[in-house]
Design goal:
Elements lengths: L9 H11 L2 H8 L6 H8 L4 E3 L27 E3 L13 H11 L3 E4 L6 H15 L7 E5 L5 H14 L4 E4 L9 H6 L26 H5 L23 H9 L4 E6 L2 H9 L4 E4 L13 H12 L5 E4 L5 H9 L4 E4 L1 H33 L12 E3 L7
Parallel strand pairs: 2-9, 3-4, 4-5, 5-6, 6-7, 7-8, 8-9
Antiparallel strand pairs: 1-10
Helix pairs in contact: 1-13, 4-5, 4-13, 10-11, 12-13
Pathway: Mycotoxin biosynthesis
InterPro entries: Aldolase_TIM, Alpha-hydoxy_acid_DH_FMN, FMN-dep_DH, FMN_HAD, FMN_hydac_DH_AS
Keywords: Flavoprotein, FMN, Oxidoreductase
Amino acid sequence: MASKPELYSVDDFESYAAETLPKMVRDYFNGGALDSITLHANQEAYRRFYIRPRVLRDVSTIDTKTRVFPDGNTIPFPCCVAPAAMQRMVHPDGEVATARACGAYGVVLGLSSFSTTSLEDVKREADRAREQTGRDGEGECVLQMYLFENRSTSEDLIRRAEEMGYKAIVLTVDTPYFGRRLTEIRNRFKVPPHLKMANFPDTLGVKTGSEHRTNDLHGDREGRSAQNPALPNKNDPTLTWDSIRYLKAITKLPIWLKGIMTVEDALLAVQHGADGIFVSNHGGRQLDQAPPTLRVLHDIAKAVDRRVPIHFDGGVRRGSDIFKALCLGASIVWIGRPALWAIAYDGEHGLRNALKILEDEFRACMGLAGCTSLEQLGPEYVMEVDAPAKL
């Protein structure tokens, strides 16, 4: 067997995954909605900002540690792993590899409700890896979920997450219907028959293999299940801001809203009691031609004014991308596709390697910009490419 190539950047992991993953799997995870304008804009947005470096500062000691939870331990740098469904399609260990890597590295893992490993097993693996390495970090888990029309399905997930020690509920709010993803349609994407949605019993109607395509798992474009109009895990398109009050009535866990893209909705989220805001456009997989997340971040952060943490994802490939996002107001940056490419390369060890690369890049960026702590980062350290020169 040929040895694997040495990889030195997230782009290297992407190239490796593109060459080795089956086309249907690669297109599923890398694809966007419709023309993928938002998908590509997410990454291109970082190129629209330059970094303004300061010099002749003592940068011999640089502190990149931060906290995700006020009462939690520190994580090594402000980057965590975002939820992504069905990770066993990428690597046999799937979410187990991701959990072990996050636990060992000391960063927070976001677990998708539609994982191919149960939320209980994922938490146990993250805890075990954290204990084995003894690394001073959080290594905690948060659960991403939807509110289904059958509320008992969602309530069961929350109860199980509480029992296992998950630290927050990440409610995805940008999916009243699922975006039209042409790569999945053209490939006639189907979940491999040997996999299942591990957080749902078969009696709920979540099936895998040739009987259901991805669209069937979540309902068709009108919100109905293609196989069963009463499918209990169908997303609820009637949700309103009252959903936050409902969740707070049934759990003490913090509620983060994932999919906030406007100042108006950010302010409503705070007004209705959200404990965190996740600036995200679903990786360009929902509403195509929505703006890139980096473009709206600063306005949202300025409006929220530190009343709740600002989580952020979308197109992150470099440590300098993390630096720019923090300068524009993000509290924590999350990576999605890069983590999948990394486990495709070498499971747990691949993701630990990718996190180390991003941390090294981020630390170097801070030092070269003249910064020694995260508290120093602000909009004065970046400038738009087309900004007029100051005279």
